[in-house]
Amino acid sequence: MFFDALKAERQGKGVTRWKKGKLKSKKFKRLNISEDQLATVNDIKNENKASGKKIKAKLKVYKQAEQLLVQSDDLNADTWQTLNNEYQANFLTIAILKAKTQHDIWNQLTPKQQAKAAEKRKEERKEERKEERSKEQAWEER
Questions:
Q1: In this predicted structure, what is the pLDDT of residue 101?
Q2: Residue 14 and residue 17: Cα distance in Å, rounded?
Q3: What single-letter DSSP state applies at residue 68?
Q4: Looking at the predicted structure, is the pLDDT value of residue 84 above 50?
C-alpha cells in the first residue's frame, strides 16, 4: 500500500525531486516511514506550500526588479541595497517557513528514523565536501 501511495503521488503531481535528482520518496523509503507518517508529512507540506506561494510571488517581483537593475547601464549599489532591504522581511519569512516545515517533518519521525536520517545526511555532506575538494583541486591545477 505504501508503494501504491507513492505511485499515485508521482502520477498526480509529477515527479518531485531532492537535490541531485533523488526522489523524495526514496528518502522516506529508506527510513521505513509509515503511511500515517507519510500522510502527515504531505499535510504539512501542503499547508506550508499555500503560505509559501504568496511570498514566492513577491520574491518573483523582486527577482525581476533585481534583474532590471543589474542589466541597466549603471549599477548603483545604493539602489540595489534599497531594493534588497525592501524585500528583507520576505526573505526572512521564506527562511522561517522552510525551517518550520523541516522541523515539523522531523518531529513526525521516530527517534530511530531520526538517527538514520541524521546518519544519511552526515554521509551526504561528507560526499559533498569530497566533491567540492576535488573540484577545487581541478581548478587549482589549471
A1: 92
A2: 10
A3: H
A4: yes
Cα 66 to Cα 83: distance, rounded to the nearest angstrom: 8
Domain segments of the chain: what residues? 50-114
At 23, give phi and psi (nearest 5°). Answer: -70, 140
Q: Using alpha carbons only, how large is the chain's radius of gyration in Å?
A: 20
pLDDT in tens, 93-136: 999 999 999 999 999 999 999 999 899 889 989 999 988 888 88
Q: How many CB atoms lie within 10 A of CB 65?
A: 15
- For the beta carbon of residue 28, count every other beta carbon within 10 angstroms: 20
| Average pLDDT value over all residues in the chain | 80
Residue positions counted in the chain: 142
Which pLDDT does position 24 carry in this prediction? 58
Above 60 in pLDDT, residue 37?
yes
- Other CB atoms within a 10 A radius of the CB of residue 128 amount to 12
Exposure class string for 74-84: b at 16+ Cβ within 10 A, else e: eeeeeeeeeee
DSSP state of 31: T
The C-alpha cell at 142 is: 589549471
- Looking at residue 32, its amino acid is N
The cell numbers describing 139, all together, are: 581548478
